[in-house]
């Protein structure tokens, strides 16, 4: 059934054909009124990581921003690349994710994996990942360009839609390698960009009114016979029925005049619904295919003329595997979704959520977390009919990345995903919620203490003392934090949320630490004798204001002594903090006995300083000192790095951070887990 649009175009014959009695007229949904409003929606240049030297000139035009057709064009926005080697996030209230969602029960009815002897209950799972939608940097699009990244056997595209089980239903195909999906309003083309507001300079119009022959066809082949003998025609698929249409006019009157000019053809004038999408050859207004599946059936485009296996596609400056879906949610602009299998998705996450050059076992631990997260959070973005978004809201996903080698998966990150194929993080028979963060400062925390979730539902999300991070602390950017506040500054912070409005802070202290050393409650006492106590689980805003990048910190208050400790080990490996009586080499090279408890040393900047600095905090001041970056629930990425450096496996790393889980594959749908 794969049909080449070029082939049918080649069949076009000159002259109108004689038509029989009118068939179904293809009554359309309500017309989408062409935009007539004055306000011009500024066409924003595609945020592109410009394809570089490896591309052919044709490839390098993929979604490249064109000259500004209006004067309102915003400056090009380059996508922010995640910091390599640092998987999370500036502290921000929004970045403290919501707690776990309802338990997810594995679907064991899915196809078994093809690995011998290993049952993979999720081998056949496809994920829908949002690439452009209201809410990410792309937004919903007026047009979406696709370009085959490899000029090989997998060039070209197939058109169709996905059925309820995410199976691709093929309607037609083309050998064109660069397509633009464009919403079916009046559209103005400038170069390879398409706008729904008339630009000031030169443009080509892609109108939304068409002439239509009075036939409805059940199959593409039937429609093609007629289209092949009708000049300038294209095939339109409307809710399962094919029509042959011609021309694209800006107004009904123009289309009517064109229809009336050929009375023998019995043309009618039509338009699409607000869900219509034209597929054109990029850089033209030549309609290859028109699709209108109504509200519930969006257009899908799969790379490859006949098979998409191994196909790679450019979209918005990044390369992706899998297929694409274009949906005008609510009749608006195009929401673009990448549809692909779970393992390929994870390969497009790990290098951007981790340092792709980290030890293999660390990358495998990250891949295990990413895979569980992806499966558990299916349907998270149901409002736009996809599963996961491509930002830190879910997991950062850039597929095969840009043309920069630093922004692509590595051999190691792909290997990590391959090596955990069929393996998951289980708690009993359920997939575990594998939350992760950059670093915890020395201890992870119970999910109930961080998010207020019911701990009984997530017994594996409990805090552990983490001795590993500290061993690589020097490598962790921004690991430690320290900040001093006065009573007046604390009062100001509290007043932003309506506390301490008629009084002021006179004391601030941590009133409870967890068993893994995290701050659970903080108390502020006021001049009027009253106080407020804040639990960590409900005051991430406060920690953010205090500059605490994690909940692992201490507060040293007025009158207390802040000591920069200095310790040495004695001959039996025990730490000595009192140095009096020890023998050391003096500056003159002589062996002398220390008389004082705290010796003087030469610092890294060459100054002589007391080795054990003691500072008494002045009245009204507080010093916060801590370490870590993130929410502290689950897996520490830097802890995983440190553990792998010490020889731990991914399984050991994950089972350390998630108490009571098992990492491994299922041998069958109901047998116990097996390790790896
Ligand atoms: Zn999301």
Q: How many strands, what sense, and barrel or not for the largest sheet?
A: 10 strands, mixed
Taking all Cα atoms into account, the compactness measure Rg is 32 Å
Low-confidence stretches are 1-115, 670-676
How confident is the prediction overall: mean pLDDT? 79
Classify the beta-strand content into a percent band.
25-35%
* Distance linking N and C termini: 44 Å
| Basic shape | elongated
- SSE-based structural type: alpha+beta
Molecules bound to protein: zinc ion
The total count of helices amounts to 12
Count of β-strands: 40
Q: How much helix, percentage-wise, in residues?
A: 10-25%
Quaternary structure annotation: single chain
> Could you give the order of strands across the largest sheet?
12-9-11-10-14-13-5-2-16-17
Give an overview in words.
With 676 residues, the protein is of the alpha+beta class. Among the domains are: 5-78 and 132-341, no CATH class; 480-560 and 618-627, no CATH class; 563-616, no CATH class. 14% of the residues lie in helices and 27% in strands. It is built from twelve helices and 40 strands. A hairpin with a 5-residue loop joins strand 30 (568-569) and strand 31. The longest helix is centred in the middle third of the chain and has 17 residues, at 360-376. 45% of the residues are buried. The model is unreliable at 1-115 and 670-676 (pLDDT under 50). The chain binds zinc ion (ZN). Zinc ion (ZN) binds at residues 380-381, 388-389, 393-394.
């Amino acid at each position: 059934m794969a049909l080449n649009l070029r082939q049918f175009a080649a069949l076009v014959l000159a002259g109108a054909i004689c038509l029989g009695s009118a068939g179904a007229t293809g009554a359309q949904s309500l017309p989408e009124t062409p935009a007539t409003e004055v306000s011009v929606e500024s066409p924003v240049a595609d945020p592109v990581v410009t394809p570089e030297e490896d591309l052919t000139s044709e490839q390098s035009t993929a979604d490249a921003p064109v000259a500004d057709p209006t004067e309102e064009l915003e400056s090009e926005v380059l996508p922010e690349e995640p910091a390599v080697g640092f998987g999370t996030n500036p502290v921000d209230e929004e970045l403290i994710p919501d707690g776990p969602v309802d338990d997810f029960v594995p679907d064991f009815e899915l196809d078994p994996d093809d690995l011998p002897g290993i049952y993979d209950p999720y081998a056949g799972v496809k994920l829908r990942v949002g690439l452009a939608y209201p809410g990410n940097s792309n937004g919903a699009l007026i047009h979406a360009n696709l370009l085959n990244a490899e000029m090989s056997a997998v060039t070209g595209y197939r058109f169709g839609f996905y059925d309820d089980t995410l199976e691709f239903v093929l309607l037609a195909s083309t050998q064109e390698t660069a397509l633009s999906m464009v919403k079916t309003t009046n559209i103005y083309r400038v170069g390879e960009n398409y706008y729904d507001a008339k630009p000031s300079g030169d443009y080509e119009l892609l109108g939304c009114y068409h002439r239509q022959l009075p036939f409805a066809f059940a199959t593409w082949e039937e429609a093609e016979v007629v289209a092949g003998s009708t000049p300038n025609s294209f095939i339109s698929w409307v809710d399962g029925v094919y029509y042959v249409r011609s021309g694209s006019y800006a107004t009904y009157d123009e289309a009517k005049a064109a229809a009336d000019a050929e009375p023998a053809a019995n043309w009618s004038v039509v338009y699409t619904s607000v869900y219509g999408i034209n597929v054109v050859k990029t850089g033209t207004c030549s309609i290859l295919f028109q699709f209108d599946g109504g509200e519930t059936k969006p257009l899908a485009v799969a790379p490859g003329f006949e098979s998409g296996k191994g196909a790679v596609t450019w979209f918005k400056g990044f390369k992706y595997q899998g297929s694409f879906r274009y949906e005008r949610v609510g009749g608006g602009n195009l929401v673009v979704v990448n549809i692909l299998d779970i393992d390929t998705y994870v390969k497009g996450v790990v290098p951007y959520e981790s340092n792709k050059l980290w030890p293999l076992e660390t990358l495998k631990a990250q891949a295990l977390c990413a895979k569980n997260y992806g499966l558990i959070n299916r349907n998270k973005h149901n409002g736009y009919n996809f599963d996961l978004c491509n930002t830190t809201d879910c997991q950062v996903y850039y597929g095969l990345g840009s043309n920069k080698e630093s922004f692509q998966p590595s051999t190691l990150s792909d290997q990590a995903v391959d090596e955990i194929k069929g393996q998951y993080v289980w708690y009993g028979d359920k997939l575990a919620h594998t939350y992760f963060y950059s670093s915890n400062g020395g201890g992870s925390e119970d999910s109930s203490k961080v998010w207020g979730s019911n701990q009984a539902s997530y017994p594996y999300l409990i805090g552990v003392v983490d001795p590993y991070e500290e061993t690589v602390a020097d490598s962790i950017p921004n690991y430690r934090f320290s900040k001093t506040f006065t009573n007046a500054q604390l009062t100001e912070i509290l007043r932003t949320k309506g506390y301490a409005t008629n009084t002021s802070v006179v004391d601030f202290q941590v009133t409870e630490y967890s068993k893994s050393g995290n701050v659970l409650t903080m108390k502020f006492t006021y001049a009027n004798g009253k106080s407020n106590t804040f639990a960590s689980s409900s005051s991430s805003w406060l920690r953010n204001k205090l500059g605490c990048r994690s909940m692992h910190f201490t507060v040293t208050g007025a009158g207390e002594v802040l000591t920069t400790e200095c310790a040495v080990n004695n001959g039996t490996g025990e730490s000595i903090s009192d140095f009096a009586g020890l023998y050391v080499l003096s500056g003159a090279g002589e062996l002398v006995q220390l008389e004082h408890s705290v010796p003087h040393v030469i610092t890294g900047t060459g100054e002589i300083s007391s080795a054990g600095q003691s500072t008494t905090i002045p009245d009204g001041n507080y010093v916060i000192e801590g370490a870590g970056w993130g929410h502290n629930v689950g897996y520490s990425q830097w802890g995983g790095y440190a553990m792998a450096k010490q020889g731990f496996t991914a399984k050991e790393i994950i089972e350390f951070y998630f108490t009571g889980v098992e990492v491994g594959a299922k041998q069958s749908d109901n047998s116990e887990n097996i390790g790896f």
